[in-house]
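Database export, one record per block. Field names are fixed; values are copied verbatim from the stored entry.
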Amino acid sequence: MNLTLTEKFYRSFYKIRRVEEEIIRIYPTDKIKSPVHLSIGQEAVSVGVCQALSSQDVVFGSYRGHAMYLAKGADLKKMIAELYGKKTGCAKGKGGSMHLSAVEKGVMVTSAIVGTTIPVSVGYAYGLKLKKLSACAVSFFGDGAVDEGVFHESMNFAALKKLPILFICENNRYAIHSHQLKRQRYDNIWERVKGYGIFSERIEDGDVFKIYDFAKKYIAKIRKKECGPIFLECLTCRWKEHVGPNDDFHLGYRSKEEVDIWKKKDELIRLRSLLSSKKAERIEKEVEGEVEKAFAYAEKSEFPGEEELLTDLFFEKKQ
């Protein structure tokens, strides 16, 4: 076991988990001005993939993008300030939880509209190919995005052009409250993608090391132009409701038991067991300090002024 890698995994994983737990604690106070789609329970996907990336690689995500943003190394203070609607946020307080960006870290954009960043990531990958760069684009999305027409158009285009892109489907089985098998005839997203001529696999147990190994192997091939697009479907589980900090079992669309199965095999606990108590406690102490400072930063930051209402907008002047 590579303990150095395990430490990196644990630090990233623990940071995401603790940030989400603080969001859950603070959300009822209304200090957070944005709806939140929590990544808690799904951290292994972003941690495993992003640890395999370099600084030149870029990621695109969905509205459930906290884990991806943090795993890629983006600024925690700016993220929390964004959730608070403050001008020091990564989108100047104008985007909220669903619109995170840190271009300097390769976090290009997350979007509130299902599936919209898939074609954008494909376009970016096309640009990488035209410029003959060795970077890789990574597109994160959920199983619900597979129902969108643009998903299929993007798969076809990426395959035809042999683009340098890794598609990551975070399949938590639900598009809001609709189970995958109520929307799709078969539980075989990864197999259907093969029909476009894209190499595809599925990891079912949420093992962060397996996800990392897959990403590392195929990103290296993409950089060397040894292959075109690659697709990975990762089965996972969101522990909380679709949007918000609470549980949702009273709605009846899923059971507490199916979530408990995933909680019992929590990758965060497994990662901690692979480290010495001293190393784990050192990481936890450092992360707790980061989290405390980030929320204090958001609290002290100011809201954007009225002059910001008309900035960062696109408009065409009338002739």
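Remark 1: The mean pLDDT is 96.
Remark 2: Residues 3-302 form a domain with the Rossmann fold fold (CATH 3.40.50.970).
End of record.
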